[in-house]
Design brief:
Helices cover about 35% and strands about 15% of the residues. The protein has about 500 residues and is of the alpha/beta class. A hairpin with a 2-residue loop joins strand 1 and strand 2. The radius of gyration is 22 Å and the shape is globular. The structure holds 2'-deoxycytidine-5'-triphosphate.
Length: about 500
């Protein structure tokens, strides 16, 4: 699908205003393309810069075994996305021992040359000098508080010194260093929020509990996420935000209307994160990814949910006008290399889209509701699992545990690929399993026997009534008509 050209607005969101001869600025504008707007009926989707940014924020929240020793210290946890030739080649986070930037240097070494790095916080100068030295092409960061906190009450003097050193490194470097967020349209926000509400995970809960108002479950989860994520990633006080921005060398954002635009845009991105995370709700810890034969998963429910939400974020960049699907593949390496993911490393990730390089509307976009079968999308669209396997950044090793996390039940086209790729476990939803939807069928998934299947479902079958078993959202249970069955609960709001 073609991406439209960038916005002039974007210039306000890059921190490279003092790159000599303006070349950096031109480069950034050339690289970034805006796809958030609904261009002539094009599906509203996240542009890559926003997707990578959201993934970096989410990686900061990767579940750790014990609270990080950085807690309440000026050095904050940090998430990082490494992008090579416009594709994600690493998802990382800081650990007890290493900063996220250090993890990237250890994992990728000189392969960082020319890569783009997306940080959830401006990295400290210790990381910055190593990353620049490794040849990173572009270092982007979320314009909230820095990794070495400028808001923490302790050690502020050293944080300020560090920020100064970061500025000096930036000024003398050929690499681009700054903020590359792009504004979201209302259409995109609305589309992505609806997609969260319509995702199969809430669909499963609705199918199991016909009397439960799942929209209310979603809204409650969303509000809680908004509170948590705003506290973590936004700076409530405008004056404090201005102070942080100017110490990080982003004074151009401190003037109006840039400041208001930046703050609003950051808030909108946090809304998307809150909404996507709410699509896989923690429902009294009753729902999770469980094997039907009660086998133990090699990773915890928290880690599974985190990976599924990574996949849901990827789905926000779908090219399918109706349904976004995302897939991520992680493996457990023999050594942990100090990564905050506890030895897990990314093998590949993808979302459903038309073949690489195709132009918008070059291929049919309609589903089986259009009568002429030659005008349907199914023969042209690549599935999330296919893209994750094709564009993987690491090989799948037989001796390691490789896990696939996918937001929709694998179809008959993908099941043999998954079966033969060396994947050991799959985490997904089986809402579509055993269904035939004209051009796409899901009959083979249950036969995928040599891959362990962990399905989104209730842990223990609830024998009491659904109303007693599940929380009543705001004391209100929406009555669903009895004929609203499994398949109807899965209907898209927009359809
Ligand atoms: N594991 C999967 C399953 C599907 N897809 C993709 C292929 C299609 O692009 C889209 C499925 O398209 P449909 O229009 O058939 O979506 P639904 O299954 O929601 O159809 P329905 O409206 O009949 O429920 O998802 C994918 O990437 N990975």
């Amino acid at each position: 699908m073609a991406e439209s050209s960038s916005w002039g607005f974007h210039r306000n969101f890059d921190g490279n205003r003092s790159v000599p001869n303006g070349e950096g600025e031109r480069n950034v504008r050339d690289i970034e393309v805006q796809t958030d707007t609904k261009v002539q009926g094009q599906v509203p989707r996240l542009c890559k810069a926003n997707l990578f940014t959201l993934l970096s924020l989410w990686m900061e929240l990767f579940p750790k075994k014990q609270a990080s020793r950085w807690e309440n210290k000026p050095l904050q946890e940090c998430g990082l996305v490494v992008v090579r030739e416009h594709r994600i080649s690493g998802l990382h986070c800081s650990s007890d021992h290493l900063h996220a930037g250090q993890v990237a240097v250890l994992k990728h070494g000189s392969r960082l040359k020319g890569c783009e790095l997306y940080f959830s916080r401006k990295p400290c100068s210790t990381c910055l000098k190593m990353l620049l030295n490794a040849g990173a092409g572009r270092i982007c960061y979320w314009p909230g508080d820095a990794e070495l906190s400028l808001l923490a009450h302790t050690h502020t003097a050293s944080s300020v010194l560090d920020a100064g050193a970061g500025e000096r490194l930036r000024a003398s470097s050929r690499a681009l260093l700054g903020v590359v967020l792009q504004p979201l349209t209302c259409t995109t926000l609305q589309f992505l929020e609806e997609a969260s509400l319509n995702a199969d995970f809430l669909g499963r809960i609705a199918a199991d509990n016909p009397s439960l108002d799942t929209e209310n479950v979603y809204r409650r989860e969303y509000r809680k996420n908004m509170e948590d994520f705003s506290q973590k990633f936004l700076i409530g006080d405008e004056e404090q935000h201005k102070m942080v921005l100017s110490k990080m060398g982003l004074e151009n954002f401190c003037v109006e209307p840039s400041l208001s635009h930046l703050r609003q845009h950051m808030r909108n991105l946090i809304r998307i994160l809150a909404s996507v995370a709410a699509s896989v709700p923690i429902l009294l810890e009753r729902y999770g990814f469980f094997a039907n034969d009660a086998s133990e998963s090699p990773v915890s429910q928290e880690v599974i949910r985190h990976c599924i939400i990574q996949a849901r974020l990827l789905a926000c960049r779908t090219e399918d006008p109706k349904v976004g699907v995302g897939a991520v593949i992680w493996a457990r390496g023999k050594q942990s290399h100090g990564d905050g993911t506890g030895g897990l490393y990314l093998v590949g990730c993808g979302y459903n889209a038309y073949p690489v390089g195709s132009q918008y509307a070059e291929f049919p976009q309609m589903d089986h509701r259009i009568e002429e079968s030659q005008n349907r999308k199914y023969r042209y669209i690549l599935h999330a699992e296919q893209n994750a396997l094709t564009f993987r950044s690491a090989e799948i090793k037989d001796e390691e545990n490789t896990m696939m996390f996918v937001t929709k039940c694998p179809c008959d086209e993908c099941v043999p690929l998954i079966g033969c790729a060396g994947i050991k476990q799959i985490y997904t939803t089986d809402l579509d399993s055993n269904k035939v939807k004209d051009d796409i069928s899901y009959l083979r998934f249950h036969k995928l026997n040599h891959v362990q299947k962990f399905i989104w479902q209730q842990k223990v079958p609830v024998e009491t009534s659904a109303e007693a078993a599940l929380p009543v959202a705001n004391g209100y249970i929406k009555r669903r008509a009895p004929e609203e069955t499994n398949s109807q609960c899965n209907k898209r709001l927009r359809s």
